[in-house]
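Narrative summary of target 7.
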Amino acid sequence: MAEEVVAEQAESKPKSPMIKIILAVVVLLLLVAGTVVGTLFLTGFFKPKPELTAEEKLAAGEQGADAGHGDKKDGKKDGKDGPPGKLTKKSPELTRFDFNYLQLEREFLVNITGSKKVMSLQVAVMTRYDQRVVDNVKKHEFALRSVMMDVMRQTVESDIAKPDFRVELAKKIRDSMNSLLEKYEDFGGIEEVLFTSLIVQ
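Modeled conformation, tokenized:
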């Protein structure tokens, strides 16, 4: 009889550690699951996303339309990963586009056609597209300087007297720069050319 009791106790002992291990694993899994759910809850994962206002929807639509302007006639997308997107900044009323400026360091000095006068310019460019446009301008600065000087050399003395001479010259320079960038990078992106200094003497 004593041998049977000892045998039963020997058989029941291994079951006890196995139950403890299973309970420990279950408790550990519950702790991990609780931690994950708690973290997601605290970071706002379960909160509903706010709806866009009419202005934000309109701005998002403008961005999509602007991205479509970069398509070439042959159907290729601009740039290696598509055209640069416009930079945005938040405002209480609506989404506004952020501006990027780049001053070209060296001045431009050209002779005016049919005159002994010279024109000296310092130029900055403005874009609302991302940093890739600024990087492309820096990358192709020598070629851009060449086409800009070609445009400036077409100026005659009578052009200088026109009231909108600066505006017209800036547009011509901008268009020539964008054409060159489209040739090399499949996207221009320069929206304005600004003269930080213009001297004719």
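The chain has one domain: 50-201.
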